[in-house]
Specification:
By secondary structure, this protein is of the alpha+beta class. It has one domain: Gcn5-related N-acetyltransferase (GNAT) (Aminopeptidase). Helix content is 31%, strand content 21%. The protein is built from five helices and five strands; from the N terminus they run βααβββαβαα. Strand 2 and strand 3 form a beta hairpin. The chain is globular, with a radius of gyration of 19 Å. It starts with 6 loop residues before the first strand and ends in a 9-residue tail after the last helix. The model has no long low-confidence stretch (mean pLDDT 89).
């Protein structure tokens, strides 16, 4: 399919929130974790655009439609100079894939990282994610000696619960 008009990659605007939310949900559904997407438009406004924004959003837009998103955040490690830019989400609407929007979004993330004096862009993804082909083509390498652990759900609840008092003696 040819795109009706060329797309542009730009910083997201608050007016893009409905499109961002739509693509975030599409991504979560494809990862079988739709239950995790609970943010309202007000949450996106505060966390993505407010004075204390927690992440940066870039969009690919075709005419006035948001067709792709790249969401990233800065992480700091003790002893390092400059942040590491963590790619949190990359999603291009399925019918617009294969036209360079994902590559253009990643290029924008890389330019952001360089402007912030970052030495790398990192990402975590599920095994079997089809986007691995894109990431590898762009120069990302798999770090096989690293493990990624999470604690969630009931296990997180148990871990966060106060430990029973122990008697000294």
């Amino acid at each position: 399919m040819d795109l009706p008009t060329p797309f542009v990659v730009r910083d997201a605007l608050p007016a893009d929130i409905p499109g961002i939310m739509r693509l975030k949900l599409e991504l979560a559904i494809s990862d079988d974790i739709a239950y995790t997407v609970r943010a309202t438009a007000a949450d996106w406004q505060h966390d993505g655009f407010g004075p204390d924004a927690r992440f940066i959003i870039f969009v690919a837009a075709c005419a006035s439609r948001v067709i792709g998103i790249a969401i990233c955040a800065e992480r700091y490690f003790p002893g390092w100079v400059g942040p590491t830019v963590a790619l949190l989400d990359l999603c291009v609407e399925q019918r617009y894939r294969g036209h360079g929007a994902g590559t253009a979004l990643m290029s924008r993330v890389a330019a952001f990282a360089k402007a912030r004096n970052s030495v790398m862009v990192e990402l975590t993804m599920r095994a079997g994610n089809r986007a691995a082909v894109l990431y590898e083509r762009l120069g990302f390498v798999e770090v096989t000696q690293a493990r990624n652990y999470v604690v969630a759900g009931d296990a997180l609840d148990r871990l966060a619960a106060p430990a029973p008092a122990r008697l000294a003696g």
